[in-house]
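From the pipeline queue, job 12 of 40. The input is one protein chain; the requested action is below.

Action: predict structure.
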Amino acid sequence: MWVRADRRHEGWGAGLVRAAEDEALARGCTSVIVSSMSFQAPGFYRRQGYLETGSGGGLPGSHTRHHFFKELERTENAG
């Protein structure tokens, strides 16, 4: 998932994540695992309630891969 720079901070990313989580719940999933590179959006996932479960470096450009986990909660709107 990616939101172009000129559309960030308008809620598009959070809305897309919520839609993906709602679809996951509808399909019987109970949790989500995602990864993000240090130059991408690790802070975004933290703000969406994801817990960082690990990270690893050694990648070109001194970048780090971040791994996140979130337990999904069923709400009235999530089927």
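Job complete. The CA atoms of residues 30 and 73 lie 8 Å apart.
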